[in-house]
Design a protein that fits this description.
heterodimer; A: about 700 residues; Beta-Lactamase; 4 domains; 5-stranded antiparallel beta sheet; 23 helices; about 65% helix; rod-shaped; B: about 140 residues; alpha/beta; Rossmann fold; 5-stranded parallel beta sheet
Amino acid sequence: MTLAGTERRRRQLITAGLGTALTLVMGTVLIMGFRLATHVRANIGSLQTASTLQTYPEEISQQLNSLRDRLEVRAYSGQALADLQGTVKRFDQMLNELGVSAESDSPQLHRALQLWHQYAPVLDPVLSFNAQPYVDSDTTGSSLSREGRQYYAEVKRAQLFASDSAGPLQAQLAALAATLQRTCSDAAARLRILLLAGVLAALALAGAAGYFRLTRSSHERAAREAQEQTRDILKTVHEGFFLLDADYRIGSVWSEALTRMFGRRDFAGLSFEELLKDLVAPATLATATKYIKLLWGDRAHENLMRSINPLGQLEIVMDNGHGGKETRYLEFDFHRVMGPEGIKHVLCAVGDITSSVLLARELQESQENANAQVDMMLGMLHVEPLQLMAFLDSAETSLNLVNGILREPARSDTEFRKKLGGLFRELHGIKGEASALNLKSVASRVHALEDMVADCKKKPELSGNDFLPLVLKLDDLLAHLRSVREMGARLTTLKETAPAAAAAVAAAAPHGSAALRQSRPVEDLSRALQAMAERLAEEHAKRFRLTVAGLTEVPPSYAATVKDCLIQMLRNAAVHGIEPPEVRRAHTKQDVGVVSVHFRKVSEGYELVFEDDGAGIAVEALKAAALRQRLISEDQAHGMDTRAAMALIFRPGFSTQEDVSMDAGRGVGMDVVARSVYALGGRIGVSTHPGRFTRFKILLPAARAVSSAVA
Amino acid sequence: MSGMRNRNAKALNGNAKRCFKLMIVDDSNLMRRRIERSQQFEGLQLVGTAGNGLDALELFKRTDPDVVTMDITMPRMDGIECIGQLVALKPAVRILVISALADKATAVEAMERGANGFLEKPFTDRQLNEAIAELMR
């Protein structure tokens, strides 16, 4: 661009110089031509005069002749003299004029004048005659008077002189005319040459002007084309381009894509800060402004500046044009534009990378999903297939129940809250079982659903719309359970078809693959409980030992209820009952707590005793928690005896835990246990000693034929 | 490793006149040793290390280093604050920020206070030496 500019300037200088030179040449030629033409015209006048003068000597001679003849015959001579006088006067006048004109220095003219001056002594007496030449007498008739005779003699002399001198004078005049003619034709030739030069110079000037115009228009065309191309590029390119000047302001040229990115068109003159002001957080704006200032400094080189670019992935929030907000991601790239005196501009390229950012997120999510699936699969490898299937069956039954609750028509706020309570209990049950089986992906999903229900509960007013997100989340959970089931089926197939895998699984599972096929759900249950106890101990930083006895005695029809109750009680024991090791030590108890489960047949049916040697249940803490949760009033709390207070733990929604974790704090749990025990016609009792133990005793009637599930 | 030290020593002896003084500031012992061990820039002589900004300032006044590697997150006085004070004491000092803070705002802030380079942790020996070379240019 700079080179092209220099070249153009050079060419303009040449053209201007050439034009001036040609104009000067033409001017000179014109002035010279004018002078020459004037000279030629004067010479032509002289030439004409000289040509005319050539005839005069002869004419003078003849007129003298005629005058002599008239005098001889005594005819009237006055007219002849007058003619002669006129001729001489004209000749003298013209000759003198010629002498004054251009060719006065001509030798021929000089000689002609000399000759003519010789005429004067003989002509003057003739010309000055004014007397009567004749006298009349009767005797002799007309005769010459005395003056006449003198006059006649003068005329004769003059005639003789004139006839002698006419030849030389005429020759001189002819030579003068010839000289003048030569001069004229020379001048004419010079004039022709000058005219030719003038025409050539004019042609050259016209040519130069044409060339200049042509090159200028071709340059203009090229410039116009370049401008159009730049405009087309800026209109078409997907990136936003603009230049920033030393005041951090945007230049007048920018690409159209900016309009789409920023929803405005007034970029020219806008400062970089103003461009981002309403789109990003103040802290980001401050960093961006500092960065731009650093770009204008020379301390950091381009690569370093690029590596610390804080606008590489800028999140901006914009109006989407429909009254809402939209989050976009822009990538700013900066390049210094160097001039001869350092940084001239900073070129800024902006790309909309929203789709690639979202894609990257999606990829990450699907990667996490895949990881979660692998985790789930690894978790499932440790779960007995039949136990898994039993869990899935019961979870699906419960979720269908949840679905039913969600679809139940409700109008009043109380009804909505009742629905939420029901949802809570069912979900909590599923979560407990999923945790017991170490199916983290299921448990975390149910937990998230519980969170949503909890959020709903906190709302001052409820409507049907509040349940919509729950339905969606529930669908997601059901889909997940289906994929778990599918994977479980595939794992079972794998175990059965691949002997090596089967051997591995057999080695991992103490009972071997034979035990798998001969289903013994209660055996599986005791192992599941052990696994759950280990997990709970680890997650809550507790140490305790679980002893299980008599679970083989559980009749199949009670298996599900016993399992649900045990899971819930084990969870309560791990979270509320067993103290952390340091607390136990402080109370001079063994570091490792003991949780025992004992099932046995008794005379009236079956007895399940669940006991932990933990902190026990403090009646006052129970009352305080119930008060906090507004389950009872202060008066009720005052009048409540120990037995009534202990019954609080079976109240729906009751919890002593203030924080919500995966395992406790929702206030759903013991009421589910109590309900399922009552549903089987059983009883549940609790006894505790603060600081010593908590014991739940469940009495179930003799086994019934009908299998019951948790409803 | 001793071989490397010898090589450095030789290089230092050879360029005794053009020897620059280096100070390493990082609150991690391990990282200080790592930087010390890895830097192989000819004509760079370690004059001291500091574990926080205040100690760095003290050491700086005593030893007058030309080149400083600076951590950002440190107890007592952080790197950003320290950079400002070092530059105020000696405007010609060259500071390489070596930080695990990946956020660009910190880098920009450090550069604004007067740092000359930025290297993100973790780094390779080669990256460290390239960053120092760039700093010395």
